[in-house]
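Backbone-to-sequence.
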């Protein structure tokens, strides 16, 4: 009988950033060629490709056959190419679909790819990317419900406000957490400063400069309590991951395989905001731990979806690294920093590494693979054995529309 064991054998990502002179095809080619080289595989070895992209319909009108168009110049032809779109969870959704292809025995080797070109000289076009990230028929009702979560928290009279619907929602959720658990703006700034420091050790990060907690607090306000460094930028970039079945490993003697223990995709529910036990990311994490046969205490390193610094706080709670309401406190005590009890976002996270939507989830897998191989350089987590990634996005109800939790083992 064939084994169900699936391995990551090749990873690659471009640097994330603002690349007005680069095309989607050039970013895809760099990531795919890099992942194939890392695995020792050739295009002929790939049995299926899962191509993640969310923005090119808006940015340049490329719809319907995005993956086929982007991958043909690299040399992919005749094999199944599946186009994947699932908000900010697109990258790891592509990974999960590639995993299922292998588990079903349809292929021995598959590749997942994520890419975005989000920057444009026309900033209005770039801003339109986010307009469809929720139920467009219920925007007013959704905003009213979510904005009420932060009611009762005093906002400084001189607090700046920049029109950004998603950051308005994040700010309201943040204020709700502050009201419920005593989370402070300084704790949120601690997360941001930590991630900016981590990014100085990642040459592929969009931003690579240090910031102190006080500098984060003093930066331009977006929506109180969030300042600019606490918020992920828009980005261009691509990432790719090659997977194979256990039976195929012998064909790639130069690969440095990392086992894919679980990859769980969830969608949200109609829970009440304060019902944290049923947060979709907590549900996904619990299922991922059960499938992997480990628990939160076994995790060596984590990459989480910090579209805002507060999002890291709530996800450290959802992943079981602390009790609900304690995410800000473990950050302030340094437990989530490199050298701490459970390093989170050693890559710099979305806040500093950047956030090209469909590439983000696979970039998390790239980082965890480097950590578990022991090849992460200055940001290496000593003795890393198990890594977890949480990748979620969109909004529906009081939480993300889609989220994926993945666990890898050295």
């Amino acid at each position: 009988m064939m084994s169900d064991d699936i391995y990551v054998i090749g990873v690659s990502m471009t640097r994330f950033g603002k690349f007005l002179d680069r095309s989607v095809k050039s970013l895809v080619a760099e990531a795919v060629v890099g992942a194939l080289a890392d695995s020792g595989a050739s295009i002929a070895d790939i049995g299926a490709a899962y191509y993640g992209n969310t923005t090119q319909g808006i940015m340049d009108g490329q719809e319907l056959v995005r993956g086929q168009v982007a991958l043909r110049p690299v040399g992919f032809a005749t094999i199944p190419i599946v186009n994947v779109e699932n908000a900010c969870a697109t990258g790891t959704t592509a990974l999960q679909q590639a995993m299922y292809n292998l588990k079903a025995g349809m292929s021995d080797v598959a590749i997942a790819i994520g890419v975005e070109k989000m920057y444009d000289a026309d900033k209005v076009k770039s801003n339109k990317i986010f307009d469809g990230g929720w139920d467009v028929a219920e925007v007013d009702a959704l905003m009213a419900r979510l904005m009420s979560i932060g009611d009762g928290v005093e906002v400084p009279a001189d607090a700046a406000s920049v029109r950004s619907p998603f950051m308005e929602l994040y700010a309201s959720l943040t204020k709700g957490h502050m009201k419920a658990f005593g989370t402070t703006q300084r704790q949120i700034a601690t997360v941001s400063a930590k991630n900016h420091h981590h990014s100085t050790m990642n040459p592929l990060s969009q931003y690579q400069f240090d910031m102190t907690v006080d500098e984060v607090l003093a930066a331009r306000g977006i929506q109180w309590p969030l300042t600019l460094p606490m918020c992920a930028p828009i980005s261009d970039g691509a990432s790719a991951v090659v997977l194979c079945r256990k039976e195929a490993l012998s064909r790639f003697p130069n690969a440095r395989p990392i086992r894919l223990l679980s990859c769980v995709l969830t969608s949200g529910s109609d829970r009440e905001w304060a019902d944290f036990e049923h947060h979709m990311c907590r549900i996904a994490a619990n299922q991922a731990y059960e499938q992997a046969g480990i628990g939160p205490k076994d995790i060596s390193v984590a990459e989480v979806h910090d579209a805002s610094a507060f999002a890291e706080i709530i996800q450290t709670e959802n992943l079981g690294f602390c009790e609900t309401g304690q995410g800000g406190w473990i950050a302030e005590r340094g437990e989530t920093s490199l050298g701490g009890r459970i390093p989170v976002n050693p890559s710099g996270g979305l806040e500093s590494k950047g956030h090209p939507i469909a590439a983000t989830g696979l970039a998390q897998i790239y980082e965890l693979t480097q950590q578990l191989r022991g090849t992460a350089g200055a940001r290496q987590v000593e003795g890393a054995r198990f890594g977890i990634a949480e990748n979620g996005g969109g909004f529906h109800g009081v939480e993300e529309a889609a989220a994926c939790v993945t666990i890898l083992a050295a």
